[in-house]
Amino acid sequence: MELMTDQRFKRTLKYLRALLIIGSIFLAFALIVYVSILIYAKILGPPPLAVPQSSLYYSDDGTIIGESHSGQKRYWVALEDIAPELVDATLAIEDRSFYRHHGFDYKRIAGAVVADIKAMAKVQGASTISQQYARNLFLEHEKTWKRKLLEAFYTIRIEMNYTKNEILEGYLNTIYYGEGAYGIQAASQFYFGKDAADLSLAEAAMLAGIPKGPSLYSPLASMEKATSRQQLVLKMMANNELISEEEAAAASQAKLDIIGEHSHSIGKIAPYFQDAVKSALKNVLHLDERTIELGGLRVYTTLNTKQQEDAEKNIDKLIATDSEIQVGLVAMNPANGHVKAMVGGRDYENSPFNRATQAVRQPGSTMKPFLYYKAIEQGFTPSTTMRSEITTFKFDDNRADYTPHNYNNLYANKEITMAQALALSDNVFAVKTHLFLGEDALIETAKRLGISTKLQEVPSLALGTSGVRVVEMANAYSHFANGGKKVTPVLITRVENHRGDVIYEHNPVDEEVLRPDAAFVTTHMMTGMFDRKLNGYTSVTGNTVINDMTRIYAGKSGSTNTDNWMIGFTPQLVTAVWTGYDQGKPIEIVAEKSYAKNIWLHFMEDALAGEAVKPFKAPKGTVGIYINPENGKLATKDCPVKRLTYYVAGTEPTEYCIDHIFEDEELPKKEAPHDHEEKVPWYKKIFMWG
Question: Of 406, 564, 598, 610, which has the fewest Cβ atoms less than 10 A away?
């Protein structure tokens, strides 16, 4: 008997020893696995915490003009910009031990297991905030062992590499609050119409209760269940001494105004402009499309919402509803290149093709100021004369003969000045100048002015037969308006990532690309299209809009069989307008030929309403004198018309007009602009036409 007992004891001891060895091996293995996981997690480093967030677009005054998202409203705010009441409420109901555990609340896990066993069902959760954050960031929400293991691994990585405050901030910015609102900022704006920083205790408790079951506890789904959940949150906060019993009671009785509307649910403002901004983000800043759409960017643009409304309003008002004519418009600040308004078509929903930035159309005579600027650089003056008559140009390089025609085949059949040729848009004068300077001169000048579209080196280039883009032309004219300083079209001034870090900021370049004296002389010549003193064999090209002008403008119109343009400016604003058919068919209806000028003028008047009337200031190196606009010579008191005209110093005329002086009269001394009636500044005398 004793022998059998001894054998049993030895056998039991043997089993216990084996079990101990196996247990030790298992514990050692588990420890090795755990340490290996920690080491591997550390080697991998911090996991990226980027999640899809709405990118917001702002106008020049900070107004939100649009956002990009995938039906999910997400906005990131710093932890310090979230109401402390919301932070406390979330910790009380979701994870009271958050600042004490290292990602897993083992006591809570054990309690959940016991509760589930007693109920024989899944009745209690034990996920910490860190675990929920890991799930929201990296995982699908399917209930599998693989997902649970990966969740645990991501939780370890997050806890090892980020502070508790960083984890809590990330959680509050990614958790789902129902109704398409992800993160506390989107939820605060949707439910209460305010920022997360401004939540009251009652509002915070209501929101903190929603993530448990957004479809159940949203006040829009069930106010009764939402209120019941709110009371539980307040009770938990009081139990944890985060608030007093009195504060909890007061908050539970507080009346809440539920808004139920996303703060940026607005119609898309300036859709063509916003498309151009996204194109710049991709092609200039080299951001990928996912970052642009869901990177939580804050994109600060140059758009002026009032001027954008002015542009769209005038286009809608001035173009007949049954017309198929399309339009492109770009308005820029010439001082810095900021694009203030952009219209790429009459109906974005029907056609998102942007005619302001994508369409390449013939600019017609709007090319002529580039040509005449170059001529002034080469010694021409506003008083330089050539014959305006039908002319056939023959070439020695086997090219076909070329015979340009004026509008309506009208010609002076005599000498006219360059100033008058520009004001009347004489084509023969332009081609003669172009060929005299050399056909490459105009191309070189256009490139200096920022025209990047390839231009054809042909005689008709002076008449705008080679296509360009509207935005290019607006930018080119800005160089005249600002006195020759380099500008490029600017759509974006600053871009911030979802954390508010500046990832791009526009820095203007201070560079002179045009001679200030020649640029001003060209600009002053461009005021001539609105000055009836320059009427000749035909009226100045701006004759039909002069009576509606309330300030000084410089500009140039242009037309081909298929395109109509008007580009003009003040020192504050440059605007280019194109109208035509998408298919490039001829514009034959008379009313449609006037759309470009009318849209341009009415937009400029509206856009600049309330702003000071600024003259174009003559720079050093220029001289203003009164001439007879008919022949470009110095005016005498007998000349029926005299016009103040500017020249590069040293190139002004010295010969007096003798067409109106009797033989027994002496030539007067050279009049200065400040003598007699010339005391009136030229920019005021412009309005004394007629």
Answer: 610
CB 519 within 8 A of CB 650: no
Q: 340 — alpha (psi -120 to 50), left (phi > 0) or beta?
A: alpha
Q: Are 155 and 138 in contact (CB under 8 A)?
A: no
The CA radius of gyration of the chain, in Å to the nearest whole number, is 38
Mean pLDDT of the 513-531 span: 97
C-beta of residue 22 within 8 angstroms of C-beta of residue 34: no
Instruction: Supply the pLDDT for residue 679.
Output: 42
> Would you say 542 and 305 are in contact if contact means Cβ atoms under 8 Å apart?
no
Residue with tokens 């009652």: 202
Under 8 Å between Cβ of 491 and 276? yes
Interatomic CA distance for residues 517 and 648, integer angstroms: 6
pLDDT for the residue 655: 94
Going across the sheet that includes 643-648, the strands are: 633-634, 622-628, 643-648
Largest CA distance in the chain: 164
Residue 338: CB partners within 8 Å, gap ≥ 6? 60, 302, 332, 490, 493
Q: Pairing between strand 326-332 and 574-580?
A: antiparallel
Residue 118's pLDDT is what? 57
* Interval 278-290: pLDDT, tens: 999 988 888 877 6
What is the tens place of the pLDDT at every residue in 69-110? 555 667 788 999 999 999 999 999 988 888 888 767 666 655
59: tokens are 């106008």
Cα 394 from chain centroid (whole Å) = 48
Report which listed range, 135-149, 158-172, 386-400, is most confident. Answer: 386-400
Which residues are catalytically annotated? Answer: 94, 365
Q: How far is CA 137 from the centre of its chain?
A: 30
Residue from 573, 640, 169, 627 nearest 420 by CA: 627
How many CB atoms sit inside 10 A of residue 537's CB? 15
Q: How far apart are CA 216 and CA 222, in angstroms?
A: 7
| Cα distance between residue 346 and residue 355, in whole Å | 10
CA distances from 621 to 240, 486, 524, 646, 675 (A): 80, 20, 14, 10, 21
The DSSP string of 304-359 is: -HHHHHHHHHHHHHHS-TT---EEEEEEE-TTT-BEEEEE--S-TTT----TTTT-
Terminal alpha carbon distance of the chain = 140
Cα–Cα distance measured from residue 93 to residue 210, given in angstroms and rounded to the nearest whole number: 11
Regarding pTM above 0.85, the answer is no
Please determine, for residue 408, whether its predicted confidence score (pLDDT) is greater than 70. Answer: yes
